[in-house]
Each structure stands twice: as C-alpha cells, then as structure tokens.
Write a structure and sequence with these properties.
The protein has about 60 residues and is mainly alpha-helical. Helix content is about 80%, strand content about 0%. The radius of gyration is 11 Å and the shape is globular. The termini are far apart.
Length: about 60
C-alpha cells in the first residue's frame, strides 16, 4: 500500500474513532499477527505510525 493510501486510511480512522484511532490500529495489527497475516499486520502498523505522526509530539 502506498504512502498516500496509508495516510488516507489513517485520516478516516481518526475521523471515525477520534482519540482511540491509534489503539484501534494497534488492535487490528495484533489481530492480524495472531492470524499470521504478516502483510496485513505490517499495513496496520504503518497506519498506526501515520496516526502517531498526525498527532504530533506529546508535551511534557
């Protein structure tokens, strides 16, 4: 999946799940890993990373 598509999925997930979007992507990645679907898990981890990038740095 190309970077543009990853970012579009991430944006849609953020709109649908708000603050829980990162957790949702992580849960889907874990579910894919448990099914031994490495390619799908890789995609969800990529989406998770894109969501974290959209969120920006966390202030301390």
């Amino acid at each position: 999946m190309d970077e543009i598509t990853i970012n579009e999925y991430a944006r849609q997930l953020l709109e649908a799940h708000g603050d829980r979007a990162v957790a949702e992507a992580a849960q889907r990645a874990i579910a894919s890993e448990q099914r031994n679907d490495k390619e799908e898990a890789k995609t969800w981890r990529h989406i998770e990373a894109a969501l974290k990038g959209m969120r920006g740095p966390i202030a301390s």
